[in-house]
Specification:
heterotrimer; A mainly alpha; B alpha/beta; C mainly alpha; B: alpha/beta; 4-stranded antiparallel sheet; C: mainly alpha; about 75% helix
Chain lengths: ~325, ~250, ~280
């Protein structure tokens, strides 16, 4: 099932159209972002409305770290960005994880907005105009380019490899003792405490990991578009990624990937002037209606349609 | 006063205008089953919640192994050796019985935070889980999904999970609730076996089970201790008969 | 004196926030539903004020009409959508209300366009009270503050002193029991929801002459509202008042003293409160 999906993605470039290659690259980056959020929402049960902050800060970071007309080193910038993302997630996590449930949602929303205003109102990152990343980072070993990120096709497969890597990494973490503990905490935190598990370190670990992976996605996104602006930090964007999760189905990792595809394709459909003419400008109306319908009618997302192909995630992960 | 045991002195819990538990003291020691009985609303679950750390007492002290544990959280107390089960069955329905116990055992191992290797790579956890399941008689059902077990088996699994954490003290909140005659009988047998190596606090309504298991009883009414003593003393007490036992027997126990 | 004027502005802003936050905290505290679209109702109120003012030119006529419209919309939305979410995941509640935000924003864009519009202050309230020889304070702003205080007082009386209020307070702590007493809790929830969003719209209406109407006004105020509710404590009206005043003053003074960081100041305040008391200042049992 998944192999089929992966093959479909891998074959997209055969269409030859750069538009599709770039579109699917964008979707794959969003899928990485969505999977990072799925770790929090689907696997631990923490609904964060501020996750875009990590995505956005990482984007700004690589823009800052890139010299104006030269390529920065991939090998230096990526670890730096990941570490800073992790540190930021740790700092924010220490504060927001003191709350839970509704408070957590509101508090992550507020922190996300705080960072948004930091970039929007101050001169830190060019204010509301954002800043440019003129030359993409260079990925070379011993002086020769391994992957040329400026070329859409190579960028595509590069991102594809990372997507697979993140997917398998997360799968692996979920079957580890840590992952099992997270699953237990999501289902019944009180019981887990009575068994001797302190919830905080696990939640913080998941939060930091999720923040780091969101940072990875932000880094790649900045590389693809060559431009970052404060909107990628807004809570609207965080909520959009949550939409992808519910479209695809939270808690299954591959649901996040499905959701990213579903969202962007739905958006392309609704915004297509060819189909809807002047109404296309108001595609968000259709998107809003779709989300409401999905919440009411198909809350477990598209992935739930595939349920008869195997046992749902958790029982598969151990035993 | 025993060294390896749990004692509570003057435990009190006040919620706004309501005193749910008023000045309750009791002792638990290894090898003994101490039952706490009383009508609904007597404060028994609140008492257990204070002992396990799920609720902070308004007043009073709890000594475990010579230390005052009132300031400790429930997960800390569990790691110190206090295990508990709840009135409502609290198992992880989508895991297998073995996975449930393995997760419980994990809390005692240093690599509980390990992210990289699969849990299958830790055979000691597997062994712990199997041992716990065997102790409650569920070894045949190890690979069954917990949600598909019968009610009685789920209650047994709940206890197995607590056992997998190798506790010295067991706080059991109505382990027999919802069980039919056969299931109750095997649960009583299981609990009798556990009592040999653990200090057990049992909150129960099933009087047959209580008198079969407990050597020491504390009777609570309206948050206060009405009487406390050995099984025979309590059975013989007129006060207790009037307040609780008479009506309990009329209800069928 | 400059400072005094800003202080008055801060209080007025705070009282307006209270109106919004009290609706949000009521809906959340009593029904357990997180409604992100609360800010959208604020926007609806403001735009309705703008529209009805243009149609009728008479604010006093417009207000009751608008309130009735919003109340009915609230009743409809609750019965068709929100009522299905009472037992569901937070994720679903967040997304349903977010979907509604998108719908409201686009409808606004379709009917009113994306420009900023001013709303005229009603004639009777147009003058200012002189404070010094050069400075004076607009009566309309005092009107806003007074109205908010009046509503706050009325809410307090209803919730603390009437049977309905008692039902609401009971319903928030023990829903099943209230139901078994024969009280139709679903109806109570429906009315509380409609009332809460009407409060938001009312806030938007009276604020419109001061803040103008513009796209995104709903989202902007929603976040601040959330901060108020978090700081004040979910479900606590008293907390909402204290927190709203605090934030109103900090934000307004912040914009005057440190404009670049005023946006961040409010969140820093929230972080500080959370470090000290994760459940907010006034916890409701």
């Amino acid at each position: 099932m998944l192999v089929l999906g992966a093959m479909c993605i891998a074959l997209v470039p055969l269409t030859g159209a750069t538009f599709y290659i770039q579109l699917v690259s964008k979707i794959m980056i969003l899928a990485i972002f969505a999977m990072s959020l799925d770790l929090l929402v689907g696997c631990v049960g923490l609904v964060s409305l501020g996750h875009a902050a990590f995505f956005g800060v990482a984007g700004y970071l690589i823009a800052f770290l890139s010299p104006k007309y030269q390529a920065a080193s991939f090998w230096l910038t990526l670890p730096a960005v990941l570490m800073i993302s992790a540190a930021l997630a740790c700092l924010i996590g220490l504060l927001v994880l003191r709350t839970s449930g509704i408070y957590f949602i509101m508090v992550t929303l507020a922190f996300g907005q705080m960072l948004y205003y930091l970039f929007h109102d101050t001169k830190l990152g060019g204010g509301s105009d954002g800043i440019y990343l003129y030359v993409k980072p260079e990925l070379s070993i011993a002086g020769s380019k391994v992957v040329d990120l400026e070329k859409p096709l190579q960028f595509f497969y590069f991102v594809f490899a990372i997507l697979l890597g993140v997917y398998f990494l997360l799968r692996r973490i979920l079957v580890s003792p840590f992952g099992h503990a997270l699953a237990g905490l999501r289902v019944n935190e009180q019981r887990m405490r009575s068994l001797g598990f302190p919830p905080f370190p696990y939640k913080l670990g998941a939060f930091v990991l999720a923040g780091m992976l969101a940072g990875l996605a932000g880094y790649l996104s900045a590389c693809q578009f060559g431009f970052v602006n404060p909107e990628i930090l807004s809570w609207h964007y965080s909520a959009t990624v949550l939409m992808m999760l519910i479209l695809g189905g939270a808690g299954r990792l591959y649901g996040a990937i499905l959701g990213a595809f579903a969202y962007v394709l739905l958006q392309e459909l609704l915004a297509s002037q060819a189909l809807l003419g002047s109404l296309a400008k108001h595609w968000q109306l259709g998107m809003g209606v779709s989300v409401v319908l999905i919440v009411l009618l198909l809350p477990s997302g598209l992935a739930s349609l595939f349920d008869h192909f195997g046992r749902p995630r958790l029982a598969q992960s151990g035993g | 006063m025993t060294v390896r045991g749990l004692s509570a002195r003057g435990l009190t819990k006040v919620f706004g205008g309501l005193t749910a538990v008023n000045n309750v003291s009791l002792d638990l020691s290894s090898g003994t089953v101490h039952a706490v009985i009383g009508p609904n609303g007597a404060g028994k679950t609140t008492l257990i919640n204070m002992l396990s750390g799920d609720l902070a007492p308004t007043a009073g002290s709890i000594q475990f192994d010579g230390r005052d544990i009132v300031g400790y959280s429930s997960d800390q107390r569990s790691r110190m050796g206090l295990g508990r089960t709840y009135q409502k069955t609290n198992i992880f329905g989508s895991f297998t019985a073995l996975e449930n116990c393995r997760l419980a055992a994990q809390s005692r191992e240093a690599h509980a935070l390990s992210m990289w290797r699969s849990t299958r790579a830790y055979p000691s956890l597997e062994r712990e889980a199997e041992r716990a399941l065997a102790a409650v008689g569920l070894e045949q059902r190890a690979m069954a999904i917990a949600g598909t077990l019968s009610h009685g088996e789920q209650r047994q699994l709940d206890i197995a999970m607590s056992l997998a954490t190798r506790p010295q003290v067991l706080l059991l909140d109505e382990p027999l609730s919802g069980m039919g005659a056969d299931e109750s009988a095997s649960m009583v047998g299981l609990l009798r076996g556990l009592a040999k190596d653990h200090a057990v606090l049992l909150v129960e309504h099933d009087m047959d089970a209580v008198f079969a298991l407990a050597e020491v009883l504390t009777v609570m009414v309206n948050g206060c201790v009405l009487a406390s003593g050995t099984r025979d003393q309590i059975r013989a007490s007129d006060e207790v008969q009037r307040a609780y036992l008479g009506s309990a027997e009329a209800r069928g126990g | 004196m400059e400072f005094f004027i800003q202080l008055l502005n801060g209080i007025q802003y705070g009282l307006l926030l209270f109106l919004l936050a009290s609706g949000l905290t009521l809906i959340f505290g009593i029904m357990g539903v997180l409604n992100l679209a609360h800010g959208s109702f604020y926007m609806v109120g403001a735009y309705l004020a703008y529209w009805l003012a243009r149609q009728t030119g008479n604010m006093w006529l417009a207000i009751p009409l608008e309130l009735a419209i919003v109340f009915i919309i609230g009743l409809i939305l609750e019965s068709t959508l929100y009522a299905r979410l009472y037992h569901r995941d937070h994720l679903h509640q967040v997304l349903l209300s977010f979907g509604l935000i998108l719908i409201f924003e686009e409808l606004r864009s379709i009917f009113f366009g994306d420009d900023v519009h001013g709303v005229p202050v009603p004639e009777s309230l147009k003058h200012s009270i002189p404070l010094t020889s050069t400075l004076s304070y607009p009566v309309y702003r005092l009107f806003i503050s007074a109205t908010c205080l009046a509503v706050a007082g009325a809410m307090y009386l209803v919730i603390q002193k009437t049977k309905i209020g008692m039902t609401i307070r009971a319903g928030s702590t023990n829903r099943e029991m209230v139901q078994s007493l024969g009280i139709n809790i679903k109806l109570v929830y429906r009315w509380v929801f409609a009332f809460g969003v009407t409060l938001a719209a009312f806030a938007g209406m009276i604020a419109a002459p001061v803040s103008s109407v513009y796209p995104g006004m709903g989202s902007q105020i929603l976040i601040i509202c959330f901060v108020v509710v978090v700081i004040g404590g979910i479900g606590s009206i008293k907390g909402a008042m204290v927190a709203a005043l605090m934030i109103g003053i900090v934000d307004t003074l912040g914009q005057v003293l440190l404009p670049e960081f005023s946006g961040v100041a409010v969140y820093l305040l929230m972080a500080a409160v959370l470090l000290w008391r994760p459940q907010g200042l006034f916890k409701v049992a």
